[in-house]
Amino acid sequence: MHSFAYRLNTLLTFSLLLLAVLCGAASFLDAFNSPLAASSSHVQASAQVLKVNRFRRQLNGADEVGLTFNVSLDVQPLFTWNTKQVFVFLAAEYETPKNALNQISLWDHIILDKDQAKFQTKVTTKYPLIDQGSNLRGRKVDLILHWHVMPKTGRMIRDKLHLSDFHLPEAYT
Amino acid sequence: MDRLETTCFRLGLSSGTTSLARDTTHLGFARVSSLRSAQMDWQGQKGAEIVMQIMLVVFAIAGLGIGYTIGSFPTMMLTYAGGVVLTALITVPNWPFFNRRPLKWLDPSEAERHPKPQVNVAAASKKKAPKHK
C-alpha cells in the first residue's frame, strides 16, 4: 500500500469483486421475491381459440393451421426488483404417432414493465402451426403458456402453465 | 527530503520512494502533485488499507439493503458507486493525516559511529591465526 497506484489498483479490484458479490446476492434474493409484492402470488392466464382461419395441407405434405384466439394473462407476480423483462409465449402441444411431443410456438410477447403485465388481447397466430407430416386432422391440441423471467443480473427462471385444449377440425378448410 | 534519502542509502535500505517520484523532483514538477510524491508512513498505509476494506464492504451492504427494501435495482448500484468514489477520495491519495507517525531514521552522525560489521575480516583473521603459529 505504499503508493498511489498500488492503492488505486487495490481499490478497483476489491470494488469489482464486491460488485460481483452484490449481483450474486441480488440474484439469490430474487428467489424469495420482492417483499412489496401486493398482487396475487400466482400467474393467471387463459386462452380460447375463437376461429380456425386456415387449415390446409402444404405442397410439401405438411399440415398448416392459422388460428385466432383470445389471450388474457396476468404475470405481475413474476416481476421483482431484479427483473429486466418477461418473455411469454403460447405453445401448442400435441402428440402424433411419429413424435411423442410436438411443441410449436404460436405467439410471443415481451413485457418490460409490471404495469404492462396484465392485459387481454385477441390475436392471430404470429407463427403458423406447421406439422412434421400430415397428422393434424381431428387432433387434440393443448395450449400452454410458457414464460422466461429475464433478470438484470443472475439466472433466468423458466416456467409454464397449462391453459386449455381444443380439437382441430376433421377436414381441411 | 534529501537527508532522509542519503541516510537510507547509507544504511542500505530503500526508503520506498518510487523512481518516478525521484525523477519528478529532479525535473522540478514536485509541486504539481505533492499528494503523489509525499508518502504515507507505515502506520498510515495500514490505516488506509483497513479504512478502504471496511468502507467498501459497508457501502456494498448498505447498497444491497437499501435497494432490496425499496425494490429499486438502480438505487443499489448508485449507492455502491457513490461509496466506491468516496472511498477512493479518502484512502487513495497521500493525505497528510496518513503521514503523522513517520519512522525516526537513525541520525547520520550516529550511524557513522557504529560501522556495519565486516564478516570477511573475522573469517580471514581466524584463518591467519593458525598459519602464524
Automatic annotation (TrEMBL), chain A:
Q: Which organism is it from?
A: Musa troglodytarum
One Gene Ontology term from the biological process aspect of the record: protein targeting to ER
Q: What is the lineage of its organism?
A: Eukaryota, Viridiplantae, Streptophyta, Embryophyta, Tracheophyta
Predominantly, its location class is: endoplasmic reticulum
Which Pfam family would be a valid example here?
SPC22
Q: Which family does it belong to?
A: Belongs to the SPCS3 family.
Keywords in UniProt for this one?
Answer: Endoplasmic reticulum, Membrane, Signal, Signal-anchor, Transmembrane, Transmembrane helix
Name of the protein described by the UniProt record:
Signal peptidase complex subunit 3
GO CC field = signal peptidase complex
Q: Which InterPro entries match?
A: SPC3
What topology in the membrane does the UniProt record assign? Single-pass type II membrane protein
Q: What does this protein do?
A: Essential component of the signal peptidase complex (SPC) which catalyzes the cleavage of N-terminal signal sequences from nascent proteins as they are translocated into the lumen of the endoplasmic reticulum. Essential for the SPC catalytic activity, possibly by stabilizing and positioning the active center of the complex close to the lumenal surface.
Q: Name the source's superkingdom.
A: Eukaryota
Q: Where is the signal peptide?
A: 1-25
Cell location: Endoplasmic reticulum membrane
> Is DNA damage among this UniProt entry's keywords?
no
